[in-house]
DNA sequence: ACATAAACGAGACGGTACGTCTTGTCTTGCG
DNA sequence: CGCAAGACAAGACGTACCGTCTCGTTTATGT
């Protein structure tokens, strides 16, 4: 004898998808602070009220899109060849390219801007990159425990990952290129100086 | 025998100061994205055109105020007692309080938001905290070279400082509190695990 | 079986009225070129966009108010006692007072200024005064056909009316008072010299 | 032993001419209400203060240019062939062309707009057209006294001229074309119906 | 099947802020 | 001391969005 609470139509999944899709497209195109709810509604073919009914702010839309993996996708997975220095180096090169690419330039900063007024975005941004899933940075570092000077048993894996990601954000904010030298230095910070 | 390039009135220093002052006050009060140029002009008793004549955007105003030390001031200097672990711990406690305080909450995120559309702000933010002046983090770490496991001769001081600051920004974005455990972990990332 | 062309909210008649009312009040108070759209919006308790949505310029607002009879009203009707000379004289005295009165001073010139960038205003201004409704000048002259030297069968009634109104506008522009002598002369121009 | 009343340079005639010239050019190009004092100063190569020092408003500049004959020039002189009907017809055709021409379109309305906030402009506008110099309308009508039905001895010449000019202004304001029919009607108003 | 009622698209509304333009005054240094 | 140049406080311009609110239409239940 389950009772339904009300009659009438349910939330339109098509509208939800269209909104998220329009949001991430326009985020990439115009950046977070030229992203307008009216623009999203118009591009998604949706009334503004449909957005306001389900989300509190535009940052909440971004947070949801981020959670669904619609933004960063799998572009930033850390490889695992067994050699953690090589893997980190490879990954940092990939990240560096995203930071500089025409589509990524601005995207990362846009996400930071979104995080600025929505803690969820910040958390999901951190989890998505440093987090503990498969392909995530923490996981990769954990697998290397014992093999590098800075990664003894009990090393603060999560904090190392966080510091690494933080350093990348800082570079994104100051538009410093992530060149070979910087990459080597970051690897050294994370796992220790190369053996002689 | 300097020659002046033109005649006519000269930039009003009083107006410049009033604008910067009004900007940082309102930044602290209302956050970066409720900071309005009209509001700054009105609070500074200045015409809008006087702002647009000299700055390209509100983030440029913040960048200039930051450069003049009107925002972070000397609140974030790293102490130097000779014991780098103790000094970092003390400093991180101070930073943690700024991040949580009613006046600092939002201020750091506001600066990040400003950095989001102005590379200068990002650079000055980094320099102001990680930079190499007296009382700056890099300087303090350099002084400790040789005394800690992660700080041998040739350690990538600047990158360590950057990673530390980045980690703090990331915590600011995700509103993670900077508790004793996190502080200890960050110290370990920077200078290595405590000796037995 | 009329079909509506779209769904959604409908134009607010209250806002429209408030805008027209505010516009004519401020026109009388401050004159056409100190009439600001922002001022109208503010006095009408309306957003600026609500004005721009429906009118192209401030002169279009004046044109509409004029069309609705909100400005000149019935102040300028030509009387009809059967004696066209007496009627014109009476009417010109009334017009002269409007031109000189504190509320009319400026109002007529303001309407001329509005006509300056909106043909509709010019047309409605002409129609409202010279036009062919009941109480209008043309009508009164037509009724007098055959009774005066300049008004034989086939006289160019409309052009006489237009010339008369034009002469009044020219006096308004040059701030020449409309004294008894001028009135008599204008009557003579319109209907001919008095009989001996 | 003439004494000068003060030291220092004297009003620059070159600047005065440049200002008047720039003003009438821009008046023709952009219309009275897009005519900006800054624009005049800039085009004339003059400081704004030099304008404000000598004129109270932009309409005063127009008034002065009008007085000097820099605007209407001799374009509107009434011919005198001895046949007043023909002369008026010719003149009205010329006026009609000015009203419709690309350079005159707007110019007349601009002058009306200027008259709107400067009685001098109105007066000079009337005098320049209806006035009593050689080639002026009143003069031409006076010469025809006795030869036409509406022009007996003692006819109100000045008022007829004024009514005619007023009718033209009204047509300029309402953008009514001055076609052959209208011209014939105006001639009839001024001098009476054509003889059978 | 029908009534109910929520979700929808559209978009008008009162507002705030934008970045630009112009006003009239003031300031500086040249001639 | 007149002038060209131009900074200044003030404030209106017309545009872009905000978040709320009405419309009229379109579904999905519950009766």
TrEMBL record, chains A, B, C, D:
PROSITE patterns: HTH_TETR_2 (PS50977)
Record key words, sorted: DNA-binding, Transcription, Transcription regulation
Pfam hit, one: TetR_N
Domain HTH tetR-type: 13-73
DNA-binding region: 36-55
Gene Ontology terms for molecular function: DNA-binding transcription factor activity; transcription cis-regulatory region binding
The UniProt record lists the keyword Hydrolase: no
Organism domain of life: Bacteria
Protein name: Transcriptional regulator
Native source organism of the sequence: Leucobacter chromiiresistens
